[in-house]
């Protein structure tokens, strides 16, 4: 094909190529500036917040309103613009909804998330043949193995086959037998998830 012929064909296809390139660039830019869905999603958590717990409140694109907060002994937290808000007795999701509703007076469509970072209002107890007896602060979703590990593990005199958990739920006292060795081997179903005020007894 002659050189003039090639130039003629290139001239015909140049606008099409340019439009395609611009479309791809626009799509790429839209993907970069799209609102991240995680910013609007508050964590779904059934844990009930209590005094002395530590929370991280994040208001999307508002760093001045975001940060770590300690729940005061009166159950309240303080936020700029909003002042005191009662956190105790709510879940992180409920608290996020509450803050979000109050912020609508000051901004359009606020996005709020609340994450529980430290639990100090909930404790469990370890008795018997563990290295460190007494109360242990719970972490979110703490399991039997995690609690025993945080107490330094079992002593050499522990009877691992007779470990049990005492639980008081709705006024009813329960004694829950524990298959410690099987749980230790990786059977997650036997690694009991603890509840506040549980007592682990190691004979």
Briefly say what this structure is.
The protein has 203 residues and is of the alpha+beta class. Helices cover 29% and strands 25% of the residues.
Please give a handful of descriptors for the protein shown.
203 residues, wza like fold, Outer membrane lipoprotein wza fold like, 3-stranded antiparallel beta sheet, elongated
Explain the overall architecture:
With 203 residues, the protein is of the alpha+beta class. It has 2 domains: 38-118, 2-Layer Sandwich (wza like fold), CATH 3.30.1950.10; 123-202, Outer membrane lipoprotein wza fold like. The chain has helices at 3-33, 37-40, 92-103, 144-150, 180-184; strands at 54-59, 67-70, 76-79, 83-86, 112-118, 123-128, 134-137, 164-169, 172-177, 199-202. The strands form 3 sheets. The protein has a 5-stranded mixed sheet with strand order 7-6-10-8-9, covered by helices on one side. The radius of gyration is 28 Å and the shape is elongated. The N and C termini lie far apart (94 Å).
Distance between the termini: 94 Å
**Helix content bin:** 25-40%
The H-level CATH homologous superfamily of the largest domain, spelled out, is: wza like domain
User: What is the CATH topology classification name of the largest domain?
Assistant: wza like fold
Largest sheet entry: 5 strands, mixed
Uncertain spans:
2-44
Radius of gyration using CA atoms only: 28 Å
Q: Give the tally of β-strands.
A: 10
- State the shape: elongated
How many structurally independent domains? 2
Order of helices and strands: HHEEEEHEEEHEEHE
């Amino acid at each position: 094909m002659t050189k003039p012929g090639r130039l003629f064909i290139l001239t015909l296809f140049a606008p099409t190529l340019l439009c395609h390139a611009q479309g791809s660039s626009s799509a790429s830019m839209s993907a970069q500036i799209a609102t991240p869905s995680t910013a609007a999603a508050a964590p779904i958590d059934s844990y009930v917040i209590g005094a002395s717990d530590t929370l991280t409140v994040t208001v999307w694109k508002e760093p001045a309103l975001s940060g770590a907060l300690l729940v005061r002994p009166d159950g309240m937290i303080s936020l700029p613009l909003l002042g005191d808000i009662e956190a105790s007795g709510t879940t992180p999701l409920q608290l996020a909804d509450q803050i979000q509703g109050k912020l609508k007076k000051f901004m359009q469509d606020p996005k709020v998330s609340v994450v529980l970072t430290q639990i100090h209002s909930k404790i469990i107890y370890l008795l018997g043949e563990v290295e460190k007896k007494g109360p242990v602060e719970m972490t979110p979703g703490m399991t039997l193995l995690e609690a025993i590990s945080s107490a330094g593990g079992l002593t050499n005199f522990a009877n691992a086959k007779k470990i049990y958990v005492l639980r008081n739920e709705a006024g009813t006292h329960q004694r829950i037998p524990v298959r410690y060795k099987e749980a230790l081997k990786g059977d997650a179903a036997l690694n009991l998830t603890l509840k506040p005020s549980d007592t682990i007894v190691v004979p």
